[in-house]
Amino acid sequence: MYKYGKFRQIGAAVAGLFGKTRAARRFNRDWVRYHGLIATVGKNRIPRKKYPEKIPFALCFNAKGCKMAAVTLKSLLLSSAGRCDYDVYCVVTEDVDTDCQNIIRDIVRDTQSTVQFLYGNHDFDESPRGGWPIAMWFRLMLPKLLPANVKRIIYADIDMIIFNDLIDIYELDLGDNVIAAVPTRTNKYINSGFLLMDIEKIRKEKIYDKWVADSREHAYKNPDQDVLNETLRGRITFLPLRYNFQLSHGSRIFKIYPENELDDLKHNLVVLHYSDYMKPWGDVGQRPVFSNYWWDVAKQTGLYGEK
To answer: Which CATH class for the 5-42+60-300 domain?
Structure first.
């Protein structure tokens, strides 16, 4: 356990007793839990020669998620300036009209990165998804939808802020494994919010067909995520916590991750995931800890005003 984990858990429990609303009590708990875990994100990076090729990167969303996707993308481009560029693939629903698409195009304007829009298919229409939006399945559609020349891709949820370029993760040797992701439980169950996917291997081994079949056979609680965990067991490379630090972990974070991974967050955090029910774009008083990082980027998009 993290050396101060027990004290943080006790302190968080006490802090959670104060606050007039559920959100306020949650904020107080998380402030104690996570205080000091993030310090110099996005700073003091070692200079490097610009990466010679564009890195494929994917976002999936519907019209309601367009502005959030723009913020995530903006954070990536800001953190990668002068270091690398991206071929951005947005898999979207049919309600993402020209106006929505232009919001994303404006983000990559005046950069060397590109953006292309793809529409989700209907292969998962018969798959149970509970209350989740259909766009949840789109990350699994990437092997089917992407151009043939895309061999691997990095996928990110739209409730994320990215603090560093993704060169190291893109170059990661997967060996015989198919994806890379951060585990969120002690049994190595991974979160599907941030993924490196070997598209070439998925196509060659017809793994996509297994995903469709498995999704139709089971009414999973977290459908796309459970499909990945069930069908790729033993073929997942586990990434360190800095690639998907989720605010929904709560005090479990001190039991799941070793001390060195928690210490690593302080200066080397790459992806901050606002995975809890509280989102930084919500009303004041309903926002999670570390919302300031999201707003620092959101204001630079011109899509969100001061709040």
So the answer is: alpha beta
